[in-house]
Amino acid sequence: MEEMEEELKCPVCGSFYREPIILPCSHNLCQACARNILVQTPESESPQSRRASGSGVSDYDYLDLDKMSLYSEADSGYGSYGGFASAPTTPCQKSPNGVRVFPPAMPPPATHLSPALAPVPRNSCITCPQCHRSLILDDRGLRGFPKNRVLEGVIDRYQQSKAAALKCQLCEKAPKEATVMCEQCDVFYCDPCRLRCHPPRGPLAKHRLVPPAQGRVSRRLSPRKVSTCTDHELENHSMYCVQCKMPVCYQCLEEGKHSSHEVKALGAMWKLHKSQLSQALNGLSDRAKEAKEFLVQLRNMVQQIQENSVEFEACLVAQCDALIDALNRRKAQLLARVNKEHEHKLKVVRDQISHCTVKLRQTTGLMEYCLEVIKENDPSGFLQISDALIRRVHLTEDQWGKGTLTPRMTTDFDLSLDNSPLLQSIHQLDFVQVKASSPVPATPILQLEECCTHNNSATLSWKQPPLSTVPADGYILELDDGNGGQFREVYVGKETMCTVDGLHFNSTYNARVKAFNKTGVSPYSKTLVLQTSEDTDSEEQTLPFPVPSERLPLRRMSPFSSTLNLQPSFPGRSYFDFRSSPHQLSLHSSLQSLNAPGCNFETQSAPYSQLGKYTYLAWFAFDPGSAHSDIILSNDNLTVTCSSYDDRVVLGKTGFSKGVHYWELTVDRYDNHPDPAFGVARMDVMKDVMLGKDDKAWAMYVDNNRSWFMHNNSHTNRTEGGITKGATIGVLLDLNRKNLTFFINDEQQGPIAFDNVEGLFFPAVSLNRNVQVSTLPQRLNSYCWQSHSI
User: Fold this and answer.
1) How many CB atoms lie within 10 A of CB 309?
2) I need a labelling partner for 143 at 20 to 30 A (CA). Which of 222, 425, 451, 698 fits?
3) Structure confidence at residue 754 as a pLDDT band (50, 70, 90)
4) How is 375-391 classified by DSSP, letter by letter?
């Protein structure tokens, strides 16, 4: 019963309804409260003026909400009569149950009449405090609204069922115990409220005040008031209008607006509506029962959530601690490497200091000795030793030659910690849903007709199954290390095609791909076996360049195996650029002619006679992406120069890791005797110094008279013979024997330059603005080899 109490309270005063009336919107108000919230409307909007204008409107016309709003939906605390500029605005207030209401625009006149009989101002309107619908009252005023006798009866029964002491109905905060009841006002008062609101003077002096208990008994014993017609106050309701859905009297049927409506007996409709309400309550009762069970479930979930939270927090702390421990271990390893680099740099510099000190002491001694010899006055004795001294002086001067007074080690540490992937992973560290709310993507299908290998690069293509309905957010491509090792991620993204460069020559790789979305990761696709370029003496097909994907030969390893083998498209050849260009086409044509039957000519120059059976003639384009910003490329990236007077480095596009490779470059321009450098380098070589200054490059630098080999800033093997405009520089990289040899104009320049060369290398050149060089693909057209050379 206590849960029903809110249904029995007026939204305006917050107390139990007293003489409730029913508004056309079906909400209820105390008759006194309805009078208090009346607002006078402009004359132009009165019912009389609208009837005079001929507009057909009902007695209770709802106003357009766009024209009039007595309720501030922005909760500003003020209501306004929005349709009329002249309408006054009055502060609004909230009733005890939280509904916003409006005080009367003017204080009610002092009268001894009841609220129902008191005169209502002309052109008054009332707004429902619950649904905020507004309507204008007719001449009958509040008497035009029916009284809710059923609600009064429910309130009486509810108050009688309460055993607690009667409370004052006018206390604003905590109601005090009532001491009297006014039979005329039907209100319980405490002493303070009685003195303040019901003083014993004027019309109120005639009211009869009784004790609260007697007042409750008199309420109970008072006869139930019979509901009368609102249009005909002397007539009782006897029928029910089906069209208007309201009780009516006989007079309404004879002369009122319900005369042409369908009516039914009041008792029959009463029983019918009671039956309909009972049926509706059965469904609502089931929902209430389910709601109670659901509340029990939610309370159990609260306890379970608290227990799971403690467990999950402990697990999260343990995982984060494990990450911190791993980071500390890695930190110790990296510090050890830094210390090792530190010791190495100190050792190199100290060795150079010792070497330079000894040589300086010898040079100083020779200088002092020569000065003493010059002081001798014996011509014949002086001439006997002068030639030898001059040769010694020149030899010592040559020992202090180029590069001797250059530090072999830089003060900067070459180590650079790349922590951006780890920081990105830390920022992306997040929780994954344990239970998938939607399915994972289907397994991707490798499109074998579009997969191919070129030289030491592989291109793979895949797609989603045709009937797949689950979208994929991206794909993960994985390759092994070429030796049957673990798979590694080489691509993560939304594309369905990827080219992997820098693979080992003559190696077999396994590739697979999987899809992912927010839910999870799909199973892996079938494994694809990729074979990079093989030896030239292997039997091969002559394929056009570039290779059409539909002509790639595929064979299945086993009828019961899910692994496929993809043959390489160009066995035994080494290319650096796969764009369709005239140079590529002419080079392929020349190689086809060289491999054609009957091609059996003698070698025309020295370097080619030294090329072995497994040598790959390499033509390449320079890589603008990794070049220094001062490098200037032209001729489809086959020609390179520089805009700076300082040496800058540029690399070829693809590296070598196995086999024997030879390439040539020509000097297109050579001004002011610069010393460009040619050789090989790692991808992370320094780009702003001469090639060979660091330990990432192996090079020969040459001027117009002589050349030197240089690695890690160490200059060795000075050799006579330089370059001019039009000279050709050849580079022979033998990764089988792990050595590097240089040629100038088809002649070997000095001995084998470097030994113990292994790893992945890229063709490299360093030059300044006084030099311009180009690669030489066209030079291959001038030579054919015996069957043992290629």
Assistant:
1) 10
2) 222
3) very high
4) T---HHHHHHHHHHHHH
Determine the length of the chain: 790
What is the residue whose two structure tokens read 């008792």? 267
State the Cα angle at 23 between 21 and 28, rounded to 5°. Answer: 55
Whether the pLDDT of residue 202 is over 90: the answer is: no
CATH of the domain at 190: 3.30.160
HEC readout, 485-512: CCCEEEEEECCCEEEECCCCCCCEEEEE
The pair of three-digit structure tokens given for residue 408, joined into one six-digit string: 């072999």
For residues 330 and 477, membership in a common domain is answered with no
Q: Could you identify the residue written with the tokens 């002096």?
A: 205
| Domain encompassing residue 198 | 171-216
The better pLDDT of the pair 227, 522 is held by: 522
CATH number where 22 lies: 3.30.40.10
Give the single-character DSSP code of 754.
B
Q: List all residues 6 or more positions away from 569 whose beta carbon is below 8 Å from its beta carbon.
A: 452, 453, 454, 543, 547, 552
Average pLDDT of the residues in 494-511: 87
Decide: 505 and 532 in contact? Cβ < 8 Å.
Answer: yes
Pairwise CA distance, residues 343 & 163, whole Å: 95
Residue 423 CA: distances (Å) to CA of 329, 335, 418, 419, 430: 17, 19, 10, 6, 13
- Per DSSP bridges, beta strands 631-634 and 497-500 are unpaired
Between CA 785 and CA 790 the distance in angstroms is 7
The answer to whether residue 76 scores a pLDDT higher than 90 is no
Q: pTM to 2 decimals?
A: 0.31
Q: State the chain's mean pLDDT as an integer.
A: 76
pLDDT, position 419: 87
Same domain? 145 vs 185 = no
Pairing status of strand 574-575 against strand 615-619: parallel
Compare 196 and 101 and report the one with higher pLDDT.
Answer: 196
496 and 472 Cβ atoms separated by less than 8 Å: no
Written as six digits, the tokens of 367 are: 């200088």
Among residues 109, 93, 105, the alpha carbon closest in space to that of 172 is found at 93
